[in-house]
UniProtKB/TrEMBL annotation:
Top-rank taxon: Bacteria
Gene3D superfamilies xref list: Heme oxygenase-like
Entries under InterPro entries matching the protein: Haem_Oase-like (IPR016053), Haem_Oase-like_multi-hlx (IPR016084)
Protein name, UniProt field: Heme oxygenase
Amino acid sequence: MTTDTATRLTQDQPTRLERIKANTRDDHQQIDDMVMAMKPFDNRDNYGRFLGLQYCFHAVMKPLYHADDLNALIPGLSDRSRFDSVCADLGDLGLPLPRDPGAIAAPHSGPARLGWLYVCEGSNLGAAFLLKAAVKLGLDDGFGARHLGAHDDGRGKHWRQFVQQLNGLVLNPDDEIVLRQGAHDAFDFFHNLLIMDRKVAA
């Protein structure tokens, strides 16, 4: 095999993020379908339910965004947390902070946390559509839908920076498996939040 051929084959291999995305495509679609079934932008009551789920998810994500070792791997990570924005959105709408989700939490150590971060950061990329829908309720990125807003640098640029950082990490094969499982677990966590919301709303 020539050097040029070897380089071309390497370039043709999917990136880490592309592998995670392919591995969790069904999980992602299930969550999207269930969120839309809530009709969160039909009225403010439904949106309040959705916001409560966001609070529970971002509450368990907050320790990951502020973990020292993860910030060393992904500079600027702590600034990406949207937990405070979710809290502000609840305050804008006069809604109380939901109950703590309990003992269930994101992992406190290890590469699985990177999978959880992938899910959380990816949700912000897709939030552009949700933010447009929120306008119908008189909400925007300055009132009630702050957590759906884009970063000052721009939504796409901010995501691409994270992708570059995640793809650039050096991990062994076992860590790669744990990372992908972490992404599955994060989707499962939000799925369970949606299931609980359905039971309460029924």
